[in-house]
Design brief:
Strand content of chain B: 15-25%
Structural class of chain B: alpha+beta
Mean pLDDT of chain B: 93
CATH topology of the largest domain in chain B: Uridine Diphospho-n-acetylenolpyruvylglucosamine Reductase, domain 3
Largest interface: A-B, 107 and 106 residues
Number of domains of chain A: 4
Radius of gyration of chain B: 22 Å
Low-confidence stretches of chain A: 466-470
Largest sheet of chain B: 8 strands, antiparallel
CATH topology of the largest domain in chain A: Uridine Diphospho-n-acetylenolpyruvylglucosamine Reductase, domain 3
Shape of chain A: globular
Number of helices of chain A: 16
Helix content of chain A: 25-40%
Strand order of the largest sheet of chain B: 16-13-15-14-19-20-18-21
CATH class of the largest domain in chain A: Alpha Beta
Distance between the termini of chain A: 39 Å
Radius of gyration of chain A: 24 Å
Oligomer: heterodimer
Distance between the termini of chain B: 32 Å
Number of strands of chain A: 18
Mean pLDDT of chain A: 93
């Protein structure tokens, strides 16, 4: 379909930087959302920002759509290729350009893994705070696209709070810096708008990240409860006491059961819920907070509390939580993972309703969630060999998202909209909201070639807007058009 | 008469619309009309009516920063947001609040403090009418009528004070926003939960946009608990190098400082360094003791901020913001000193050194030519890379062309009209494209912002 572009792409990326063999192309047909697949017409693997820009210029001139892919771990299909387009893979751009502890910054290429940034910063006493569970594999460029958070975002924030500058390739194929690494560059915060735009506004080719001082002390507690309600009450008490843990995670009985089978994490037996509370900061503060958290969990009826005394015990506490998604794969052939958010105070009521929906449909739902910020990951378990079961699971999944919206939450806390949830966008936002958001897209990508079809169910036409005008039309003023 | 017809149309949309007078002037430009919408619906109808008649619009909250930015090319209608004064919701259990744009920062602070919470923003303490702001008060940049800044104004100018080191600037705290576009369309993004990546983040886009993309009518913020104790540890460094050592020691420690500030009243004066630690009382005491040992002889801790804290702007003069990579602090101070000496001025230099932001302030009675010369010399030095702390391994193009910026936030009209307020703006073409999409008629605060936007 686009074979005529191969010579130009090979000229830019080298022949070994262009993939055209159909079998090889299929290995790129999906990201972490395996339910949606489409082999791209071509894959390119540039090594430099200039190569990315040149590739995009070729696409723009040929009006061929393109999609960027980091490590392909995304859970919303953000890197789902276009069958008629080019997939631009950044995995060969993995230079850690500089680590600058004196200014608490690092500059990295987009293919660098999230964990690699922290590893490079550690010798200086720093780390990179946004830490998705997939951090060993996921790329910083992907983190920028999705505004990734991770378990510790409750205290430490998301990617947008830790990026101070971006070099991007615009959909027209130009290299532009957004932000200068100071966090106070003049003009619109296009960098802030770009982060979380899911690859629809351009491709990040260099990222200036903020580094965070490694806390003096990190510890965590594991608390078992009879019910998620009791666990939720403990969370409310902790937040209400003015404590800001680094992370608060909760798992329900089904998730615990799966994790136990997978990794023998030895969580409190028979617990209806477990809470993992991680605290970090100056040692005196952490010790005091840990005492307070222990007391509050006991007062909320915790049946068993364990405190990690060292890093090994801490890792042991986290093992079950980190394995949860993969673990449910052992107790069921397939699962849909949702990423809804509800106000934390509504967690109890929403969990009850999910339990109700599960009981009514007979479909099991395991719950793992970031209890501190109301970000749920209900794992809807089903047998994907049955079309009826698949449909029912998808319906239940949608009902859970509806629940999140009706409670004033969000359809996605961290995984992104991608293709997976674009049909829910009109439930969360009005037509004018979506129209206004897409003005941004029109500014960056008027040709609609840059990761098209993601986020918004209906693309906006980027042409004329009716209405009274003052002065020459902008297109006339910039010399791009005549008006007569 | 045509004027009456326009006013009638505005008043139909917004009952509190009237002919404007001199007190409604924006940076010396007197509009024809002023209107105070009392609801989002009224604001929408008002802007729609303004669009019908091709009016250029400038928003005004308390007016505390109305003189920031360039003078508008044209201003027909001032939209006063002070009737949009509802704290719509304070969900204390979720640490979230939804407020209308006209709510004052101080009033919001009172509401939140009643539940032991805060919107962790310091407005810049300043002076507008020649009298000193409350000593030690870090909140509420006072406007021309002594009114504190509004939420809308704070967001639109993107201002942040000392605690930006820990909590960020307004764009870091906003999780949802409702705006009215130039054509009257009402649009929202984000929501009322902190974790939310659905759709584009208009809050980031509108933060710091000086009203040029539309009218901010509501915003949702994430909150933080009010700490139960605070300790301000201060010392006087004898020069830039010593100040830099102190700042770097505090910022690079494990003490988790909330703010690390400097202030120097004039060339050759000691550089005062102040570090804020927050938390519970025992923890603050312990950490402050460690901090004092780190900073050396002369370091003292007090529960109240020193008089110079957060005070960057001593009057209605010229306020210049220099942003840089933190390690460049001594270079930045040297650049300021050289430019100031050459121009014959002696600014107050103060700011959030560890966060890479300092302000140079000239009094209103400073000579216009000297002020302009100072700014030009600063810009030239930055263009030569003299304020860059570029890592050795990151030569261009692996890093941006210039790693620092100089922006003139406000200046007396003779200075403002002579100088380039913004300096070089990477990405300006993209910014123009965004402006053209949001406000194709260029009627929202035209000319106030970068590149004449």
């Amino acid at each position: 379909m686009i074979e005529h572009l191969v010579p130009a792409m090979a000229e830019i990326c080298g022949r070994d930087g262009v993939v055209t063999d159909p079998l090889d192309l299929r290995t790129y047909e999906c990201d972490g959302l395996t339910s949606h697949r489409a082999a791209p017409a071509m894959v390119v693997l540039p090594r430099t920002a200039e190569q990315v820009a040149a590739v995009v210029r070729v696409c723009a001139a040929a009006k061929v759509p393109f999609v960027a892919r980091g490590s392909g771990t995304g859970l919303s299909g953000g890197a789902l290729p276009r069958a008629d387009g080019v997939l631009i893979v950044t995995s060969r751009m993995r230079r850690i350009i500089a680590v600058d502890p004196a200014s608490q910054r690092a500059i990295v290429e987009p293919g660098v893994t999230n964990l690699a940034v922290s590893t490079a910063a550690r010798p200086y006493g720093y780390f990179y705070a946004p830490d998705p569970s997939s951090q060993q594999v996921c790329s910083v460029g992907g983190n920028v696209a999705e505004n990734s958070g991770g378990a510790h975002c409750l205290k430490h924030g998301f990617t947008v709070h830790h990026v101070l500058g971006l070099e991007i390739v615009t959909p027209a194929g130009e290299l532009v810096w957004l932000g200068d690494g100071t966090g106070s560059a003049p003009g619109y915060d296009l960098m802030g708008a770009f982060i979380g735009s899911e690859g629809t506004l351009g491709i990040a080719t260099k990222i200036i990240v903020k580094l965070t001082k490694i806390p003096q002390m990190v510890t965590c507690l594991l608390a078992g409860f009879e019910t998620t309600g009791a666990g939720g009450a403990a969370v409310s008490a902790i937040i209400g006491a003015g404590i800001v843990p680094a992370a608060i995670e909760m798992m329900d009985a089904l998730a615990i059961e799966a994790a136990e089978e997978a990794v023998a994490c030895n969580y409190p037996e028979g617990a209806g819920a477990v809470l993992i509370v991680e605290l970090d900061g100056p040692e005196s503060d952490v010790r005091r907070d840990r005492e307070a958290v222990r007391t509050l969990c006991q007062e909320a009826g915790s049946t068993e509390i364990r405190e990690a005394v060292d890093a090994a015990e801490r890792a042991a506490i986290w093992v079950g939580r980190k394995s949860a998604f993969a673990a449910v794969g052992r107790i069921c052939p397939a699962y849909i993972v949702q990423d809804g958010v509800v106000p934390r105070t509504a967690l109890g009521s929403v969990l009850d309703k999910i339990a109700q929906l599960s009981a009514e449909s007979g479909i099991r739902v395991a719950n793992v969630f970031h209890a501190g910020d109301g970000n749920l990951h209900p794992l809807v378990l089903y047998d994907d060999s049955s079309p009826a079961a698949t449909t029912a699971a998808e319906e239940l999944s949608g009902a859970i998202l509806d629940l999140c919206i009706s409670h004033g939450g969000s359809i996605t806390g961290e995984h992104g909209v991608g293709v997976d949830k674009s049909r829910y966008m009109p439930k969360m936002f009005g037509a004018d909201d979506l129209d206004t958001m897409q003005l941004l897209r029109c500014a960056f990508d008027p040709q609609n070639l840059c990761n098209p079809g993601k986020i918004f169910p209906t693309p906006r036409l980027c042409g004329e807007v009716p209405g009274a005008r003052r002065g020459p039309h902008p297109l006339v003023a910039s010399g791009q058009a005549e008006q007569f | 008469m045509a004027g009456d017809a326009v006013l009638r149309a505005l008043a139909t949309a917004c009952p509190a619309a009237r002919a404007a007078d001199g007190s409604d002037a924006v940076a010396g430009v007197t509009p024809r009309y002023a209107a105070s919408p009392a609801s989002v619906a009224e604001a929408s109808a008002l802007l729609h009516a303004a669009a019908d008649h091709g009016l250029c619009v400038v928003a005004r909250g308390s007016g505390s920063r109305l003189d920031w930015g360039a003078a508008p090319h044209r201003c027909d209608l001032v939209v006063d947001t002070t009737l949009l004064n509802q704290v719509v919701e304070h969900a204390a259990g979720d640490l979230v609040t939804r407020v209308q744009a006209g709510v004052g920062l101080d009033r919001l602070g009172e509401v939140l403090a009643a539940a032991g919470q805060q919107l962790a923003l310091d407005a810049l303490a300043g002076v507008r009418n020649g009298t000193a702001a409350d000593a030690g008060s870090a909140a509420g940049g006072n406007g021309s009528a002594g009114q504190p800044a509004t939420i809308g104004g704070t967001l639109a100018t993107g201002v942040a004070g000392p605690r930006r080191l820990r909590y960020g600037t307004p764009r870091d705290l906003v999780i949802g926003i409702t705006v009215v576009r130039a054509d009257g369309t009402v649009a929202s993004s984000g929501g009322k939960v902190v974790k939310n990546v659905a759709g584009y983040d208009l809050g980031k886009l509108f933060a710091g946009s000086y009203g040029t993309l539309g009218l901010i009518v509501e915003a949702v913020f994430r909150l933080h608990p009010l700490p139960s104790a605070a300790g301000y540890t201060t010392m006087a460094a004898d020069g830039p190098a010593a100040a830099h050592r102190a700042v770097a020691a505090a910022a690079g420690s494990e003490l988790a400082p909330t703010a690390v500030e400097i202030s120097r009243s004039g060339r050759g004066q000691p550089v005062r360094v102040g570090v804020l630690l927050e938390g519970d009382p025992a923890g603050v005491d312990e950490r402050s003791a460690v901090l004092r040992a780190l900073l050396g002889d002369g370091a003292m801790t007090a529960p109240e901020p020193p008089g110079w804290w957060g005070r960057y702007d001593p009057g209605t003069g010229t306020l210049i913001r220099v942003a840089f990579w933190a390690d460049a602090l001594p270079r930045v101070l040297a650049v300021i000193d050289a430019a100031a000496a050459a121009a014959g001025v002696d600014p107050l230099v103060a700011g959030s050194a560890a966060a890479g932001v300092v302000y140079a302030a000239l009094r209103e009675d400073a000579d216009t030519g000297a002020a302009a010369g100072f700014i030009a010399a600063l810009r030239a030095a930055l263009a030569r890379g003299e304020a860059d702390a570029r890592p050795q391994a990151a030569a261009r193009p692996d890093s941006p062309p210039v790693l620092a910026s100089v922006v003139v936030l406000h200046a007396p009209p003779p200075v403002r009209d002579q100088v380039d307020l913004w300096g070089p703006v990477p990405g300006l073409a993209l910014m123009r494209a965004v402006k053209d999409q949001f406000d194709p008629g260029h009627r929202m605060a035209p000319g106030r912002f970068v590149g004449g936007i």
